[in-house]
What does this fold into?
Amino acid sequence: MNRTQTSSAAAALLMLLADGCTVGPKYQAPTPPAPPAYKEELPKGWKEAQPSDGALRGKWWEVFHDPALNELEEQVSLSNQNLQAAEAQFREAVAAVSVARSGLFPTVTSGPSITDSRPSASMAASPPAGVASTGTYSLPIGASYAADVWGSIRRGVKASTAAAQAASAQLENARLLVQAELASDYFQLHGLDGDEELLQQTVQSYARYLELTRNRFVGGVASDSDVAQAETQLFTTQAQLVDVGVERSQLEHAIAILIGKPPVEVSIGCVPLKRLPPVVPVGVPSELLERRPDIAAAERQVAAANEQIGIAKAAFYPSLTLTVSAGLQSSSFLDWFTWPSRLWSLGPQMAETLFDAGKRRGQLREAQAAYDATVAGYRQTVLTAFQQVEDNLAALRILGNEAETTQAAVRSAERSLAVSTAQYKAGTANYLQVISAQAAALSDEKLAVDLLSRRMVASVQLIEALGGGWDASQVAEPPGWK
It folds into this structure.
């Protein structure tokens, strides 16, 4: 066979084996445990959203119609350091796709050299008289290509792509978690503002009661015990008012860190909560699989683990490497770039492991076990997602019912306080009855304020459990991957 035939045969063999075949299992997404409907009934006034019927999109926090919250949420993606780290990990995963894809192409190298050598005069074959040294001028170019006969490289690319998609979803999940945490802290902070407003009003009311009791004591109508009880009631409430500031400061500091700023740069005005929780579009359970970034990340991890099984199986088959080298070589600089100075070589090489003491079988079992673990993790993530939705639907329903009952209790407590106060002024009741009515009224009013805060936080957590404004199509083909 002449050189032309050899080259043609090698090229044909390269094209044939480059197409190759792929060993290992074909990926099929695991069946998730998705129920047809939610167990928990929707809160009063809500309805199950139809596909794309009022679904949250992007800036989900705007459903609360709070400009201050909107401004804070906009700063999360720009400055939060945990998100910056997750974004860097995503870029790292995208770069790994390029690294894996490079294996589908030949590696071309070159190493030009100029050497000057002189053989030893003591050797039998000494240089001719008058020749002190010999120069060698080389310009080699080599190419090496590992044919992806069994699909190992292609599976590596798919595994890296799936891992990058998982990193993309994990980034969005981290973003959602931070956004939800900020909104929860924000509503808890303003819930404390409601407590502060209530306690300030109560302190003013108790101060008037103390003045009344002192006047009655001076007039000989009330005892010093009544005055002491009124003072105790006032001072205790003042202490509660001061204590509210501790938790509020901590929440304000937490919000500052979430938006990537030192606490000294963030100050949030005192605005008690007044607005009721918004109606959140819930959708059907099957949509949850497309709406949760953590579910999408878990599914992509399953896909990557499946490709690792194929890579482990491909190790049982021989590998083929085709090497090509060409270039120019001469002992004279003037003849270096002439046609007679050309050289080339071409040849395939097969390699097969004959004995490895069970290493490859162990690696295959390892990959299969890792796949089973990711499938279990995926299904557990789905179950946890349904639990979180059910939990917060139940919380909103129960807290809503509790809020109605508490409002009735507040009205009754206020009426009881008014009656006790009138009886005390008339001298038909002692001050202990007034104190008891005051304590009951304050307790019910504070519970009403706290319930509104808890309902707002439950709304945030429900939105988080539903995946916020995210959609799984966002990880399908991110720009710049091809």
Remarks:
- The longest helix spans residues 359-426.
- Confidence is low (pLDDT under 50) at residues 50-54.
- Strands lie at 107-110, 113-117, 134-147, 319-330, 342-351.
